UniProtKB/TrEMBL annotation:
GO terms for biological process: proteolysis. InterPro entries: Peptidase_S1 (IPR050430), Peptidase_S1_PA (IPR009003), Peptidase_S1_PA_chymotrypsin (IPR043504), Peptidase_S1A (IPR001314), Trypsin_dom (IPR001254). It comes from Photinus pyralis. Transmembrane segments: none annotated. Residues 1-15 form the signal peptide. PANTHER family: AT26814P-RELATED, POLYSERASE-RELATED. Keywords: Disulfide bond, Hydrolase, Protease, Serine protease, Signal. Residues 8-240 form the Peptidase S1 domain. It holds the Pfam family Trypsin. The keyword Nucleotidyltransferase does not apply. The keyword Membrane does not apply. One of its GO terms (molecular function) is serine-type endopeptidase activity. This is Peptidase S1 domain-containing protein. Belongs to the peptidase S1 family.
Amino acid sequence: MWVRILLVITTTVAAVVKEVSIENYPWQVSIEKNGVHTCGGTMLRSLVLMTAEHCVYGVQKESLQVRAGTSTREKGGELRGVKTIFEHPDYNPVTFENDVAILELDSAFDSTRPVDLLHSDNSVADDAVGLVIGWGISSAEDGGRSSPNLKMVELPKVSEEKCAEVYPNFNATTMICFGGNGGGDSCLSDSGGPILVWRMRNILEQVGIVSHAFGCGEVGKPGVYTRVTAFQDFISESSWKPYL
């Protein structure tokens, strides 16, 4: 099983995959380890961002920096160090249960704004389409080289029943699935980034965090995302600690 790290896009879904500007997704950030992009994340407050726990599990904060305000991977924008890592105490590295973490920066960004979080799972329709944003390969034919530019892919929501058939450890309370139709997908180094859905008033809200899957872009094998509504208490408590 792979943790999700790069955006994999096959030529069959070119119409729904495109380069996007960070100006349209100002909450999106890149987490770099020793200067190399490894995961995505989303800003919650001026000093705080959310990512996947597996992105920081066993990692020293001194090796991390966060880049914001640029559509280009590992170039431009603003860089900040990580002051504190708030890890979920019940994270399971085998099942990816509770795959969520909060990072406190050493100083605030000037170019970001907070992401809107989904607060009601009942509003995610069965036919909902999620938007995954990240830096990854642009074609299955380009040798696995990462795109220098931020990209977006649209993925259909998958029922809890179908997801449980693929993943024995799937927990519908804390996880949600998208994709598995053989088209574009999240993959290596998209981990920690968002999957978002359109809500009323044309607002994008984050419903999940890129977590794990069997392969990338394979038919019948959707991606599993941490369900953010299941961790409202942890997210709220951790994201306010730097301000107390």
